[in-house]
Task: structure prediction
Amino acid sequence: MPSPANSSSNDGYDVAFRLLLAVLGVVVPLSHLAWLSGNITAWATGHNWAPYQPTTALLHPGRLWPQAGETSLLIGARIVPITALLALGGVAGVLFSRHNNRSGGRKKKIAGMAKPKDIEPLMAKAITAKARSLRPSLKTAKHIDAKDTGILLGNLQGTRHEVRMGYEDVAVAIMAPRSGKTTSLAIPSILAAPGPVLLTSNKAAGDAYTATLDARAAVGRVWSMDPQQIAHAERQMWWNPLADAKTLDGAGRLAGHFLAASVDASQQGDFWSKAGSNILSQLFLAAALDDRPITDVMQWLAFPADRTPLDILRDHRFTAVAAQLKGTVEGPPETRDGIYETARQYAAALLNSEIAAWVTPQTDLPEFQPSAFVNSTDTLYLLSKDGGGGASALIAACADSVMRAATAQAERAGGRLDPPMLAILDEAANVCKISDLPDLYSHLGSRGIIPITILQSYRQGQKVWGDAGMDAMWSASTVKVIGSGIDDPDFADKLSRLIGDHDVETTSTSRSESGTSTSVSMRQERILPADAIRALPKGTALCFATGMRAAMLDLRPWYLEPGADELATASARASKAITARAIAKAAPKQSDFGTTA
Result:
């Protein structure tokens, strides 16, 4: 235990040492600037160059340049060096401020968080080596661009070390609105993707859609499915949701999307929900087998006595399914009507002719085919409004169809897609409720299909997939990104416990008649308590990767990266085009007004 006298002595030495460093930090550069500036002034006025004596130049300039006038010495050895030193200090301050702003304004690293060696598998050298082993097309390449090695998540806090998730990782990002989920994660990932890209969103103008539209059009074809006219774009494609419904399994999956879009996970197991979903799957199967448009299902739902679906199922030897459908149709009228009405509600969006046009054959438009898409460098934008009912069901069904087509292609290609496919499921809990998405997470990464599901909160995922489903997705995700705005105290505490504790040195002081004594002890303390997680500043995020310590990241928004001006211009142009189309649609047409005599 140090004595009080020693403690005071040490404090005095520490202050004196810091004061000495501060003085040297000013005097040394100032004396050298005085010597250099004085010599330049002497040379300019026709006098000799003085020997290297910076201290004399600062304190006694007249000794080095006796022939120079007082005015020359005042300017050359006093005013100019002081001005130059102040200017250098100002430049250094500006550069430091910019660097600090770029890293989210966090000046102090958090003790106990991951260091570069703790997350080495996510750093440049390891992630590049991993990319060579995962992608046959890169094995013989002499140089591999960083974007081909993995998806940039950000920089390790306070450093220039880039942190990337590899092309076998699957991720969940939980980030509140305006915390960087689009600007720092979705948009940079889409811009750097080497293969096909799928994006789901509930926004268009000023979002990932407009920011990436032109850039992705330069590398492949752009497909936009916008049944609720979020981007107000002219329909230039159609997709057949019944293409994968020619089996009972496929028809059941399609019906499941309509169910999930209409009711929460807690309600999907009740009698009416299950019965309505079963009727939909049976009718989807019949329509698919007979190559009918999906809208025919609405006609059959309107008239349960129509025997057409029964005949189709029997003709294609689905006799058991036909028997089930017949049993429902001929059952008690009250039960039958309740089941059919439930199914009608689930598929009600198909009654909207503008929505139905996107999923029924159009002879003058190309058909979007997932099997071709996964072998391209195309981009698919799937747009739907929050709570879009059946419209969001079609978005989820299309996304699911693409991922299943990618899985089939990966199996044919030896196990993995090369280049990999990126699936950014932004606002997944609102517009892309794929019921078994947590189960898909267990194998998508190994197929070269990289999903990033973006949620606003953990509870939002629980509402869609239930507690068990969301826990399964969380556990299966090899990378988890947590942004600012976490207001759920239970989830914040869970994260705090996952980050862990560290040793903290505690100093205690006691006073008595004989003097003051100081003791030092160690105690365990949370690295990041729940309140600190809630208060994460914008521009930062926590990263949890399988088998590694939690890391604090400085996010990298696209607008601070090279080429941002060009992207901003393209985004503004696309946003203005959306506004112009919206205004044009809202403008009254000539036929809206009657003629006057």
